[in-house]
Amino acid sequence: MxxxxxxxxxxxxxxxxxxxxxxRQVIPALLAHWLEVSAPAVTMALKRLKRDxxxxxxxxxxxxxxxxGREMAYRTALRHHLIERMLSEIFGMAWYEIHEEAERLxxxxxxxxxxxxxxxxxxGGACPHGNAVLPENPIERKRxxxxxxxxxxAGQRYVVASLHERxxxxxxxxxxxxxxxxxxxxxxxxxxxxxxxxELSTGVSILGRPAAEAVWLRPEVQ
Length: 222
Ligand SMILES: [Zn+2]
Prior knowledge:
Blueprint lengths: L8 H13 L6 H8 L3 H13 L3 E3 L5 E3 L1 H24 L7 H8 L5 H11 L16 H6 L3 E2 L8 E7 L4 H9 L7 E7 L5 E5 L2 E5 L1 H4 L2 E5 L3
Antiparallel strand pairs: 1-2, 3-8, 4-5, 4-8, 5-6, 6-7
Helix pairs in contact: 1-4, 2-3, 4-5, 4-6
The site of zinc ion has 6 residues, from loops.
């Protein structure tokens, strides 16, 4: 569990915005899980964020951002996105190495440097994990024809569209399993024990459900 002091106001606001963008109901327990902090730490942080006018907590227990909370959360998410792209596109760092680096740097960027990054890279592109500034609602993604690996059809060929990037250990695990953004794969079988067998150019891999749910695919165009 992380020391609550090291999880800043910006981390809380960004987590709330990202969870909301994914179509989740933002309750304190979700924030405790995502930010790896204790329930009392979340309670204290929410109290402060409420006092400062960044969030409102409804009678249903759901946390919602105010306009100023949303603005600060988006700025933090955008800085994270731009820094990831800088590390990858300018410095050539690998996609499975950069998330934590960006988590640290996003709090240190001055407005002037942020403007430079935005000018050089633009706001529209995808990060090296295949994600836009904010995550997308799974319902929207499925409507576009994307599917998580945990639900992909056996026998079909797919290309990896994007990866959930919240957990650096998961990214490293996926990399070691031969999976990465834009990689092409064939689903061999969805197995009884909720694992999925896939065939990559490097061989066959078997992934458990938590990893398979974090990999979004689009059908490979022949
Ligand atoms: Zn990313």
